[in-house]
């Protein structure tokens, strides 16, 4: 608990004047500071030496009142107008009587075009170093979005160009249009709010930031760092269509798609119905030709197969095979008969030879075979027997038993 807070109790509260004095004392400790901002309003009262300015932060909905001497304003920014960027040297002051805070400026410098371009270039290098311009993170918008979010000025030519050309290309396209200030001190806060609203809308598939051409000062809100970061953080793809082809605000580098003009954005966001119908017709024609060519080719193949003898006259193959089978049967019959005849001849010759060599043939000629009856041994010499031995005589017509009378 600080010393000042310790002096304030429910029993001994501070009067309003004491609180005002202490607030003024704390604010006075800040001292003189350099402040950068955009002039939202200038109030010059006739005959008064004091000029009142409303200084707004370009990237936020914040503003402060600035008081300065007419001579200071005429010396530093004689042609100052609303919407201009200024840098001023001022001291914060708290007015106890009204309970308000303001800045008292003793020097005002209007930011020229060169300084603005230098600031934009510094912001560009910063964002590029952080990867906000990386092409790999850019998303492709859908081929046919369900709903398109359009952020543009009220009743502007950019709005008319986008809506007219998009509906001419695809009549059923749906838009959610949010009109904002596209230049001046309120432009950036309104642009940020519109982006947030559309990015939260689940039906919005793509967002278009559209504005017509203008000077560098007019397009300055679209090079604001806060707006660039908001576009980078959008989950919905963003198309930038700011100014003409030669205009390149920083939001063009951050957006997922850069369109050279609002009309170009309308052409990029939806397909052309007539072109798509023509492509479909061409595709159907190519498909029809391909199918017909395939059918014709297969028909030719079938005709070629059907024209082959095996299918055109299948009985020819059977007749051919039947002739071959008949020829083989006749050949087999001839071969078998020949083999049987030759075998019969060989058998006849063999039988004849056997008969010629057979002892039976010899016996038929009147000869006999003398054998011992006990062991069947053939006798060839008379000395092999003695008188009284029994013999067996084999004749052509049978056998006889005999006894040796004398030798």
Automatic annotation (TrEMBL):
Major localization listed first in the record, in broad terms: cytoplasm
Key words of the record: Cytoplasm, Exonuclease, Hydrolase, Nuclease
GO MF annotation, one: exodeoxyribonuclease VII activity
InterPro entries according to UniProt: Exonuc_VII_L, Exonuc_VII_lsu_C, OB-fold_nuc-bd_dom
Transport as UniProt keyword: no
EC numbers for this chain: 3.1.11.6
Catalytic activity: Exonucleolytic cleavage in either 5'- to 3'- or 3'- to 5'-direction to yield nucleoside 5'-phosphates
Subcellular location: Cytoplasm
Domain of life, per lineage: Bacteria
Function: Bidirectionally degrades single-stranded DNA into large acid-insoluble oligonucleotides, which are then degraded further into small acid-soluble oligonucleotides.
The protein's assembly and partners: Heterooligomer composed of large and small subunits.
Name of the protein: Exodeoxyribonuclease 7 large subunit
Source species of the chain: Rugosimonospora africana
């Amino acid at each position: 608990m600080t010393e000042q807070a310790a002096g304030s109790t429910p029993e001994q509260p501070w009067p309003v004047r004491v609180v005002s004095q202490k607030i003024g004392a704390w604010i006075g400790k800040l001292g003189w500071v350099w402040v950068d901002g955009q002039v939202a309003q200038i109030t010059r009262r006739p005959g008064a030496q004091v000029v009142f300015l409303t200084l707004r932060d370009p990237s936020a909905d914040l503003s402060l009142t600035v008081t300065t001497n007419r001579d200071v304003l005429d010396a530093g920014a004689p042609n100052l107008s609303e919407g201009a960027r200024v840098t001023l040297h001022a001291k914060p002051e708290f007015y106890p009587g009204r309970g308000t805070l303001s800045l008292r400026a003793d020097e005002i410098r209007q930011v020229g075009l060169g300084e603005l371009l230098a600031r934009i270039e510094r912001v560009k290098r910063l964002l590029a170093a952080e990867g906000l311009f990386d092409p790999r993170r850019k998303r492709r918008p859908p081929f046919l979005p369900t709903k398109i979010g359009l952020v543009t000025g009220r009743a502007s030519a950019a709005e008319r160009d986008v809506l007219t050309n998009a509906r001419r290309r695809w009549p059923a396209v749906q838009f959610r249009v949010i009109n904002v200030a596209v230049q001046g001190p309120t432009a950036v806060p309104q642009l940020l709010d519109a982006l947030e609203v559309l990015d939260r809308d689940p039906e919005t598939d793509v967002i278009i930031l559209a504005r017509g051409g203008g000077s560098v000062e007019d397009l300055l809100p679209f090079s604001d760092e806060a707006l660039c970061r908001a576009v980078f953080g959008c989950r919905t793809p963003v198309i930038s269509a700011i100014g003409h082809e030669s205009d390149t605000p920083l939001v063009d580098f951050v957006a997922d798609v850069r369109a050279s003009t609002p009309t170009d954005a309308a052409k990029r966001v939806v397909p052309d119905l007539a072109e798509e119908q023509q492509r479909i017709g061409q595709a159907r024609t190519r498909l029809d030709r391909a199918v017909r060519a395939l059918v014709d080719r297969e028909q030719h193949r079938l005709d070629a197969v059907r024209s082959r003898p095996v299918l055109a006259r299948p009985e020819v193959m059977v007749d051919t095979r039947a002739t071959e089978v008949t020829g083989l049967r006749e050949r087999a019959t001839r071969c078998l008969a020949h083999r049987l005849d030759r075998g019969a001849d060989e058998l006849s010759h063999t039988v004849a030879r056997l008969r010629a060599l057979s002892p039976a043939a010899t016996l038929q000629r009147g000869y006999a075979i003398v054998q011992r009856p006990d062991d069947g041994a053939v006798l060839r010499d008379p000395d092999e027997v003695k008188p009284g031995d029994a013999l067996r005589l084999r004749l052509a017509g049978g056998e006889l038993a005999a006894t040796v009378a004398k030798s």
